[in-house]
Amino acid sequence: MHWLLRGPPVVTTKNSSRSSQTSDKRGFSVRSFGTGTHVKLPGPAPDKPNVYDFKTTYDQMYNDLLRKDKELYTQNGILHMLDRNKRIKPRPERFQNCKDLFDLILTCEERVYDQVVEDLNSREQETCQPVHVINVDIQDNHEEATLGAFLICELCQCIQHTEDMENEIDELLQEFEEKSGRTFLHTVCFY
């Protein structure tokens, strides 16, 4: 199975913490993307984010923030996240520019979920292969990102162990909603 974990940032336009918290250490084939027009990382104030083009490498972002305010970006975890990300891939990727096929796409923000569904529905259907798009809102802070990563990992493990994902996923998501107290959005799109 090819899985796409989508949460915003450093791989997207928002939620830098979330996407950096999830990896493929549990045996999943995971890729992370952004959906905005630029990569936005927290800045010195909520209304002053650091904005980068998707062509900017993680190394360039790291060095830029190191130069701007090493203490701030070390304390808020952004430098650590960028250091980890640059060991995984050179730069963020934009979902709308990716033509690969996935079985499952997970988002961590309803706005991103809407953008993904809109993009998939605007593409010309070629293979009619289904892709499940699931959203669970996760606040963009280290604690929520960590808890969200465990929740998403558990969900993926349960999905992986289903005998018939197409017929079991709705019931599984309902169980996760009851267990976690979070609302999950789900739709199926086609390639």
From TrEMBL:
EC number(s) reported in the record: 3.1.3.16
A GO cellular component annotation in the UniProt record: nucleus
Cell location: Nucleus
Organism the protein comes from: Muntiacus muntjak (Barking deer)
Region (Disordered) residue spans: 1-48
Segments of skewed composition (Polar residues): 12-22
EC category: hydrolase
Molecular function per GO: protein serine/threonine phosphatase activity
Protein name listed in UniProt: RNA polymerase II subunit A C-terminal domain phosphatase SSU72
Role summary: Protein phosphatase that catalyzes the dephosphorylation of the C-terminal domain of RNA polymerase II. Plays a role in RNA processing and termination.
Reaction(s) the record says it catalyses: O-phospho-L-seryl-[protein] + H2O = L-seryl-[protein] + phosphate; O-phospho-L-threonyl-[protein] + H2O = L-threonyl-[protein] + phosphate
GO biological process, one term: mRNA processing
Keywords associated with the record: Hydrolase, mRNA processing, Nucleus, Protein phosphatase
Matching InterPro entries: RNA_pol_II_suA (IPR006811)
Family: Belongs to the SSU72 phosphatase family.
Signal peptide: none
